[in-house]
User: What shape does this take?
Amino acid sequence: MPEQSTSRTVFRRRIAGGEIVVAVGVYDGLSARLAEDAGFDALYASGGAIARSTGVPDLGLLSLDEMLGRIRQIVQAVRIPVIADADTGYGNALNVRRTVRLYEEAGVAALHLEDQVTPKRCGHYEGQELISAEEMAGKVRAAVEARGDPDLVLIARTDARAAEGLEEAIRRGRLYAAAGADMIFVEAPRSIGELQIIVQQISAPLLYNLTYSGKSPLLPPAALAALGFRAVIYPADLQLGAIRGMQRVLEALRRDGITPESARASFQERDRLVRLEEFLALGDRYRRGESS
Assistant: This one.
């Protein structure tokens, strides 16, 4: 737990500082390791990407246990902070208490809860339905009470922009901050003008979701930081890239019966990524009866 506590402290200090936290979306231990090795200093365990990696759409189909298993895998694979998607908290305020405790035990640095009904759907699809703002505020209070480590960052997400408009999204964001959320996530704003209004009217640290649905502006981290956002998540990039890469390899295999070297990692690169040499060295040390 000390290492996990440190990652939480680092993340909390960074969102309070002047630089924006950039978190790339991952969905398993291998994608998490790739992102860490590439130099990212935070990860986003995307519920949508995790769902799609099992072959189902982002419609709230995975259970708490299924999500927890993957989140533990991601956290254990890296040393950097992990922001985790906790969807709706998997039920009411009592469920939220349990979800927060289990996510904290899994070692995440932060988690976000949203105000959709259960089952939820991707925030950039159509047809989201919301619980009342008051019920969601109660969920936020339950999350705050359930938190054991005060450095665990609790993020409240609202999908009200699509369902009820920008004014209601801002009202809800302010209400959730007053209920104790450390950070607010207004999903799917439509323009830079809306982003400016959100920053002006919600005083809590803000998270931005950069995705390719066409609903929200595609802005680099520096531009988002200049607007006043403290974190940005890229939930889809790594998985979308992996899908395209696998499709190209499959096309080559079907066409030629062999994958060109330029389209695949080497055995050595793959084994380095999963730390093969470290495991082999550990096994040798244990066989020799040596202590650490």
Remarks:
- The first helix runs from residue 2 to 16.
- The CA atoms of residues 124 and 213 lie 6 Å apart.
- The mean pLDDT is 93.
